[in-house]
Amino acid sequence: MTVSAPPDSLATMQPPPAAAHDQPKAPERDAGNVLLSLEHIFLAFGGVQALNDVTFDVREHEVRAIIGPNGAGKSSMLNVINGVYRPQRGTITYRGRQWHGVDPHTAAASGIARTFQNIALFKGMSVLDNIMTGRNLKMKASFVEQAIWFGRARREELANRLKVEEIIDFLEIQHIRRTPVGRLPYGLQKRVELARALAAEPTLLLLDEPMAGMNVEEKQDMCRFILDVNEQYGTTIVLIEHDMSVVMDISDRVVVLDYGRKIGDGVPAAIRENKAVIDAYLGVAH
Amino acid sequence: MAERIDTFPRLMLHHAHVRPDHPATREKDLGIWQTWSWRDVAGEVRAIACGLAAEGFGRGMHLAIVGDNRPRLYWAMIAAQALGGVPVPMYQDAPAAEFVFVLNDAEIDYALVEDQEQVDKLLEAQPQVPTLRHVYYDDPRGLRNYDGVTSFDQLVERGRAYDRAHPGFFDEQVALGRAEDVSGMLYTSGTTGKPKGVRQTHAAFIAAAKGSAEFDRLKPSDSVLSYLPMAWVGDHLFSFAQWLYVGFTINCPESGDTVMTDLREIGPTYYFAPPRVFENLLTQVMIRMEDAGAIKRWLFGHFTDVARRCGTRILDGGKVPAGDRLQYALGNLLVYGPLRNVLGMSRIRVAYTAGAAIGPDLFRFYRSIGINLKQLYGSTETCAYVCLQPDRGVQFDTVGEAAPGVELAIADDGEVLVRGPMLLKEYYKRPDATAESIDAQGYFHTGDAGFVDPGGQLKIIDRAKDVGKLANGAMFAPNYIENKLKFFPHIKEAVAFGAGRDRVCAFINIDVGSVGNWAERRGIAYSGYTDLAAKPEVYELIRRCVEQVNEALAAEPGLAPSQVRRFLILHKELDPDDDELTRTRKVRRGFIAEKYAVLIDALYAGRAVQHIETLVKFEDGRSGLVAADLRIEDAKAQDVAMEAAA
Questions:
Q1: Does the pTM exceed 0.90?
Q2: B32 shares contact with chain A (CB less than 8 Å)
Q3: Which of A101, A150, B195, B223 has the maximal Cβ count within 10 Å?
Q4: Chain B, 578-637: which have a CB under 8 Å from a chain A CB?
């Protein structure tokens, strides 16, 4: 089994350049109802306005990209979604219910998983154990049962291990199952982090720069895995990415932030043409 | 019943009857070894066969099999045979463009492939292959939105329905099979020209399986790891024909990357690998020993010396002094046993290597630590082997004696000829090639030059057509020289030139793992293959290897003129994707000579530097240019004049 994606896969996903300019193409996958909507989000740290009246939504089963120059507020946005930061104003509606002061634990329990810009794995633990930690919320056995690995704890571990093995198979990391994460190259560590997020069987997956620091081949692999996750598990994905060709290739809709404000929102082809976005990236005086 | 067990489907049914609960196939899936007994396999094959029949597959048709070693692909081969069809396994790592030739040549209309990667390649090839209409895939991942391809599960489901509607169908079809039917078509690697489809009958392959199984006393309790390309005749013999003849267990690894771990977990009793696998294993061990503590290094060094001194003789049952025996027993406890365990070779009774020449040191190392590694010789046209080494007659420079039932002869020009029940029926659609290779007496012309040594074992020198003459009339056997070079762990590939010339020159490919490690330990920084290959220190290292080869050549009768006078280290690795090697990693001499003509000119013109630009294909299908200024160095040769005078 070769790990690399078939060479033509990326090429075929790319809309023909001419067509893309003429008519913005609608997303190919059927995006469903609104899964998450953020309305008029304000987030400030002291005098710094990290997010300033940002409104957008995420539909079921879509790949939604958040882009923007450094310091635009992209990571803050993810942190607002999964409850790490609490916005001063604005409403968040997730699966039709309004969230007030949700914390990361509740967010995770409601089906939101994420990966981090800087890898946050347990370096000394094996790949398998790291991914198993992603199943933490699914384990109900008591501390005592787990300590003596009896009854419910045993059954749960077997069931959870099966799920984890499916993910290992899915992301093609069988060969490093027993390897301590700290010994792995960067690209594989990123993949393990994705595996751990998937282990929580999320409805909504937040990926913070999943391809940062990767070489071309690793990026291709990661693109393929993200699309496969989206297709196979129907997971809704919100991702932050700097590589524009990746964003344009794999996302259904893109939201653009600059200095905490939303300056663009739409399908990739439309974003490519958006004057404000081009200015933000090329650096026009504000 | 005994005389009716003469086709592979009947062999399978026989095992399902005699040993229904014995494990036939294992596959590591989701981290656990899944097992199918012979009874299970018979059930699966029945369903696949009926499914294929429901889809219109039948007698005389060809079923392409493309993928890594997966149980379902092996079963599908039996299913195709049960219907009187012919399975055509293809090299799974070939790009779509190479698929086109074989698919067209074999007129494939049905194909069963492993996964999305292979489906994509087939679909890419399809516009140029008008016959290809039915594609089935095993692993459904990523294929949900594909049109016009069918999943394996659907195929099996249709098969079960068909079986219910036509209960006697499968058994009737199996009963229709005859031993002289074609059981499989394997393509030659195409060292010269386009690949040819070699058609083998049930009778031939069963004869081959029987001969070798009896030679090595294989038993149903044996276990093999099936990890070599299914399109290769070696795998077809070891993981298919012998599997069905003997009824042992084949184990399919989890993925290509996990083979080493899976090997340890399974602990096969019978093992087959080309020399490069053994070489990689040993290189890994050596690299890890370099990092071990002083005591461990000393222990390893001391006991490998002991093993070198007496290990192979102990394995061969020869006379060994009691002191050495004691030392060896201690070494077995402290070093050899644990090492065999790490290599996954603790339970090996018989191991074979073939496909290329194996270095004497490498070969002796494995034998000295108690692994019964042997060599065999053969080709796709002879069902993988014609010569085998008997347990107590193992030498590194011969390939064994004629196997049971094989007649061996040497033609006047030195070409090895063989006759026996395991010869090919024909090349597909190539009566000219068939007539050329099989003469009126029924001898198959192997195309290899060799001789039988006084001990009755065959020794292969080179491909007959490669053996040429230097300008002064001395014999020039390029393969022989290249193999001597490749026995050094630092040299991965070598190409020698000299036919019709006044001296021998060579291209070298360094082994980036081994030389890279060597460079690292000396603090030599490098960025990649091209950079490393151009380092003066590396040239010096390789020059010493070349000069050692020259010393060895000078010592052999008639080969002193073949010493390598000048060499260069290529700026890129020779690669099957660039057509420089075959898929089985044999050098395509003519193609290389053409592609790098400037370099050859520079070698013979005595230039010290030559600029070259080469188009390379990357693994993702894109291509790019690699440019370099290659240095050319002289190597010291032993004095030939003295020998000529003597």
A1: no
A2: yes
A3: B195
A4: 619-622
The residue from A146, A165, A199 where one domain ends is A199
Torsion of CA A120, A125, A130, A133, to 10 degrees: -100
Identify which of B375, B366, B374, B446 has the alpha carbon closest to the alpha carbon of residue B413.
Answer: B446
Query: Chain A: nearest CA to B621, how far in angstroms?
Result: 6
Choose among A4, A165, A178: nearest Cβ to B619.
A4
Using left for φ > 0, alpha for ψ between -120 and 50, and beta otherwise, residue B565 falls in alpha
Same-domain pairing of A176 and A278: no
Contact partners, residue B159, CB within 8 Å, separation at least 6: B46, B47, B48, B49, B50, B51, B52, B53, B54
Question: Where in chain B are the domains?
Answer: 2-201, 468-645
Residue A285 has a pLDDT of: 58
User: Chain B: residue nearest A224 by CA?
Assistant: B142
Give the pLDDT score at A15.
38
At the fourth CATH level, the homologous superfamily of domain B468-645 is ANL, C-terminal domain (3.30.300.30)
Test A8 with B93 for CB contact under 8 angstroms.
Answer: no
Interface membership of B31 toward A (CB under 8 Å) = yes
Q: Do A174 and B31 touch (CB under 8 A)?
A: yes
CB-nearest partner of A7 from B31, B257, B621? B621
Mean pLDDT in chain A? 83
Residue A284 has a pLDDT of: 65
pLDDT in tens, A19-36: 333 333 344 455 578 899
Q: What is the pLDDT of residues B120-162, one digit of tens each?
A: 999 999 999 999 999 999 998 888 888 889 999 999 999 999 9
Q: Tell me how many domains chain A contains.
A: 2
Residues in chain B: 646
Which residues of chain B are within 8 Å of residue A175 when distances are taken between CB atoms?
Answer: 254-255, 257-258, 261
Instruction: Please write down the HEC assignment for all residues of B194-242.
Output: CCCEEEEEHHHHHHHHHHHHHHCCCCCCCEEECCCCCCCHHHHHHHHHH
Facing residues of B104 across strands? Answer: none
pLDDT of residue A25: 38
Per-residue pLDDT of A139-181, as tens digits, reads 777 777 777 777 788 888 888 999 999 999 999 999 999 999 9
Among B616, B633, B634, CA closest to B625: B616
How far apart (Å, rounded) are the C-alpha atoms in residues B568 and A224? 41
Chain A interface with B: residues with Cβ < 8 Å: 1-9, 161-162, 165-166, 168-170, 172, 174-175, 177-178, 216-217, 220, 224, 228, 231-232
Tell me what pLDDT residue A276 has: 85
Closest Cβ opposite residue B117 in set A6, A161, A170: A6
Chain A: residue whose CA lies nearest to B29: A169
Structural domain range at position A127 = 119-199
Same domain, yes or no, for A230 and A272?
Answer: yes
Alpha-carbon gap: B293 to the closest alpha carbon of chain A (Å): 20
A128/A265 same-domain check: no
Q: Measured between alpha carbons, how far apart are the two ends of chain B, in Å?
A: 68
pLDDT tens by residue, B234-290: 999 999 999 999 999 999 999 988 998 899 999 999 999 988 888 888 888 888 888
Residue A18 has pLDDT above 50, yes or no: no
Same domain, A164 and A215: no
Tens-digit pLDDT profile for residues B214-227: 999 999 999 999 99
